[in-house]
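To the team - FE2/S2 (inorganic) cluster complex, inputs and output below.
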Amino acid sequence: MKKFTLGTSKEQILSMINERSIKRVLVGDQKIALVRIGSEFFAFQAFCPHRGASLVEGQLNSINEIICPLHQYRFEIKSGRVSAGSCSDLETYPAFLAENGLVITLP
Ligand code: FES
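Output:
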């Protein structure tokens, strides 16, 4: 496992990442997707485990599921579990906001 810190402060991260929008970020050499809900952050694979559509082009619904833009499969943002559709779960990565930035752990 590898830990990465994005940004340089808590305030910088909160001002850079709008709430409830899905953002693509480069962590090390890996593109991942990131969502902020309040001061909580959720990091997950950027491409759908079904057929590889970009989840950054997807949507976040009111019960905090990511909806894939291609076939509308849904994934719970916290666990990555597929809640509608038949494919593997979304890979998620631990993320938390620290005083010195956003800490993301990749496998
Ligand atoms: S590619 Fe995402 S649901 Fe099919």
